[in-house]
Specification:
This protein has helices at 95-108, 124-130, 132-136, 151-154, 172-179, 231-236, 262-269, 274-294; strands spanning 5-13, 16-21, 24-30, 42-47, 52-58, 64-68, 73-78, 82-88, 112-117, 141-143, 161-165, 205-208, 214-217. The protein is of the alpha/beta class. The chain folds into three domains: 5-58, Nucleic acid-binding proteins (OB fold (Dihydrolipoamide Acetyltransferase, E2P), Beta Barrel); 64-217, P-loop containing nucleotide triphosphate hydrolases (Rossmann fold), CATH 3.40.50.300; 231-294, Orthogonal Bundle (Ribonucleotide Reductase Protein R1, domain 1). The chain is globular, with a radius of gyration of 21 Å. The protein binds guanosine-5'-triphosphate, magnesium ion and zinc ion. Belongs to the TRAFAC class YlqF/YawG GTPase family. RsgA subfamily. Keywords: Cytoplasm, GTP-binding, Hydrolase, Metal-binding, Nucleotide-binding, Ribosome biogenesis, RNA-binding, rRNA-binding, Zinc.
């Protein structure tokens, strides 16, 4: 351990990792091809200069939030206590993306909450109404306006490590700026004509909160592939399926079109939201396609 410092990765720039230690911040590289570090990871480093160091050891993780397709694995953050999926009625929200974020949280074992930003916009009411499905599933809804009052979120953050994820333009960086005075992250007007965000934030970064705890800002995502999950992971990630466990005719029912399926019956009665089941079905299809492509 001589000459080594314990630290936490606070930013990732390609193969460079900004690591914060009790003795300051270091621009670090990994030794050899270790790689695979995420914002929030704990490491041991060995300084090689005033503010440069080599990462000697990756310490064990409590959890890891990530997405992946056949070709890439994208690490979002490690060792986080909770995920805030940030949504807004403007630009037009994508409920499929929200479901994927929630599935990733369930699979990683990290509690998820849903922020509904831009409540000052009149378009918010129908979106909030739609989100009641999620509140019923146990995901807390936190409506607020980042530009005027972030108090509804502030109460959740003290002493914990939290990450903000979501589509581009929903206001993640605006939230961080309001909660971390010295953050001063660039934010950008969304393109209302094109009804899209602009991908203003390009790197994941951890900020310290004045009242203790950390808040991680991440770049807006358009898609969220979950290639690392198998069928069992997927089913387990939909809380509304849990009370129906064991009630399908076939023990290995996939809840897609099987006769005597309790989940499909619940979709018909409305006990399981059809839009949620569609998200599940889309993820199953992707899984099947990936399996076929590998053969
Ligand atoms: N009306 C309204 N606009 C907001 C609010 N919060 C943020 N915005 C605006 O939304 C736009 C996008 O905000 P950002 O904070 O850059 O969004 P982001 O989620 O960080 O976007 P990416 O970095 O691209 O992922 C900016 O023009 C903000 O001023 C709000 O509460 N109300
Ligand atoms: Mg941003
Ligand atoms: Zn079934």
């Amino acid at each position: 351990m001589t000459g080594r410092l314990a630290g936490r990765v606070v930013a990732v720039h390609g193969r460079h990792f900004l690591v914060e230690t009790g003795a300051g911040r270091y621009d670090c590289v990994t030794r050899g091809k270790k790689g695979g570090l995420a914002c929030g990871d704990r490491v041991e480093i060995k300084p090689t200069g005033v503010d440069a160091a080599v990462i000697e050891k990756n310490l064990p993780r409590d959890n890891l939030l990530y997405r992946s397709d056949r070709f890439h694995t994208k690490l979002l953050a490690a060792n986080v206590d909770q995920v805030f999926v940030v949504t807004a009625a403007v630009p037009s929200p994508d409920p499929g993306l929200l479901d994927r974020c929630l599935v990733a949280c369930e699979a990683a074992g990290i509690p998820a909450r849903i922020v509904v930003n831009k409540t000052d916009r009149p378009e918010t009411a129908p979106w909030l109404e739609r989100l009641q499905t999620y509140a019923a599933l146990g995901y807390p809804l936190i409506p607020l306006a980042a530009k005027t009052d972030v108090a509804p979120l502030a109460g959740w953050l003290a002493g914990r490590t939290s990450i903000l994820v979501g589509a581009s333009g929903v206001g993640k960086s605006t939230l961080v700026n309001a909660l971390v005075p010295e953050a001063e992250i660039a934010t950008q007007d969304i393109s209302e004509a094109l009804d899209t965000g602009k991908h203003t934030t390009t790197h994941t970064r951890l900020y310290h909160l004045p009242e203790g705890g950390a808040l991680i800002d991440s770049p807006g995502m358009q898609e969220f592939a979950l290639g690392h999950l198998d069928q069992a992971d997927l089913q387990a990630a939909f809380p509304e399926f849990r009370p129906l466990a064991g009630q399908c005719r076939f023990y290995n029912c996939r809840h897609l079109r099987e006769p005597g399926c309790a989940v499909l019956a619940a979709v018909e009665t409305g006990a399981v939201a059809r839009a949620r089941w569609r998200s599940y079905e889309a993820l199953c299809r992707e899984l099947d396609k990936a399996a076929k492509d590998y053969r």
